[in-house]
Amino acid sequence: MLYRRFGRTELQMPVFSCGGMRYQFKWQDVPAWEIPTDNQANLEATIRRAVEIGINHIETARGYGTSEMQLGRILPKFPREQLIVQTKIEPQVDAKQFRRTFEQSLRNLQLDYVDLLGLHGINHAESLDYSIRPGGCLEVAQQLQAEGKVRFIGFSTHGSTDTIVQAINTNQFDYVNLHWYYINQWNWAAIAAAKRHDMGVFIISPSDKGGMLYQPPQKLVKLCAPLSPMVFNDLFCLSHQEVHTLSLGAAKPQDFDEHLKTLELLDSASEILPPILARLEAEAIASLGEDWVKTWQTNLPTFEETPGELNIRVILWLWNLAIAYDLVEYAKMRYNLLGNGSHWFPGNKADRLNELDLQQCLSNSPHADKIPQILEQVHQMLASEPVKRLSRT
Fold it and tell me: At residue 21, does pLDDT exceed 90?
């Protein structure tokens, strides 16, 4: 395993982390006796495999249902100083409730402290306010730190880059969990801001949210050769020294194997990546046209500025991925989450397009004339049953 300094925490963080949201039994709390023996055995085998290969950062959240409770049966069996344990608690209007929720997490994990406590989901102005206002959740986290129950404080986010940068610039957080990978590089400005503040940078779900790369389309497989899409994406992310660790949401012990192939390639990333990156860009241009590829995002309105809160940027992004790389199943999954994702995946899909006048909000886009037709095509291609966030299933 390779390790990187996790910003000002000074922790030696493995470049891969063991995320805790794919191996648990349920997304809701259940009594301990309801957890099947085989499910618990698989989770414990996954954790043992992670630690065996040097992935000693185990990451979970109160919002991950039975994950914490199940981890509480295995984590205390390891020497505590060998582990880096992170859990995450959603910011709440009542900071006292935030503390009570954290105390429940600590009981679930059967630990005396966590190394990393993340404020889970600083996604918009409201959750940022709950966090950083006087007497808010950040103050409670700092009290827990003073009591020795938390070593370092960070936040996770699915929010806009502007919101993330605003939270980073408070200089009150030691690390950030955010989205950034080949198919979605919008948050680079936030990573640059984190570097300026010497924060740890943890990439959320690069294999699943980064394109459902456990089951990649054949077109993407060919474009990424000789690497698998998963290894390509890992290498792309880790070739940037500003990135410290990638979350691997392992569902079983074998899920680490493909990722491990990345480690021996890191020193050669500058030779391996350019031809693959060139092929991916060339295919996007061949499929979508150079002018579109280079300018499609120019002067697009935010979903808040758009009638019906239509999330035009996300919808066009998914269109691009489906057309250029055959990431149709991924695009369907994300598209049908629109309207159901609350502040975790905000805005709406294009199901009411004929009721909306987009002329004014698109007036500064170089593609104002064609975007409404593309939005209609996207809806015809991708619309299916609404998708719920995992924690709501």
Answer: no
